[in-house]
Amino acid sequence: MKIQQHDFVKEQGVPCSFVVEYNRDVQADDLFAVVRVNASDEEYVARFDVVKIENVDEDAVSTFKLTLDSDIPQGRYVYDVFVYDANNKPKAKILKGHILVKASISDRGRKHGRDSGNTNV
């Protein structure tokens, strides 16, 4: 089975969600979805909340909503979604991708020196 890839951009401090359809019957507790700085890192910087939802597509056996609610610092990250077996071991990776976390709109002016606190004209 080919691992699907989905890359996306996220604004820092703003939750984001997407839907994953899977062709096997699994529960939300069977999925483990994490964000890391590098694909080879053992430790992760954030974990997706996974909720099983009603199937949208006739061909999907299981459908999930993944939400990344963590306030991750600006930068580039990778994420993976794994299906775990009954022994709590990864059985299959079903999705991977890259995340670009951009500054929130309220922080962008400060980065360019526009909000330095200097009110002198």
Structure description:
The chain is mostly beta strands and 121 residues long. The protein contains one helix and nine strands. The strands form two sheets. Strands 1, 2, 4, 5, 8 and 9 form a six-stranded mixed sheet that branches. A three-stranded antiparallel sheet has the order 3-7-6, with no helix packed on it. Strand 8 (75-84) and strand 9 (90-102) form a beta hairpin. It is globular, with a radius of gyration of 18 Å. It starts with a strand and ends in a 10-residue tail after the last helix.
What descriptive keywords fit this protein?
1 helix, mainly beta, disordered C terminus, 6-stranded mixed sheet, 121 residues
Task: Describe the structure concisely for a colleague.
The protein is mainly β and 121 residues long.
Write the layout of secondary structure elements.
Layout: E1 4-5, E2 8-11, E3 16-22, E4 31-36, E5 46-47, E6 49-53, E7 62-68, E8 75-84, E9 90-102, H1 105-111
Parallel strand pairs: 1-9, 2-9
Antiparallel strand pairs: 3-7, 4-5, 4-8, 6-7, 8-9
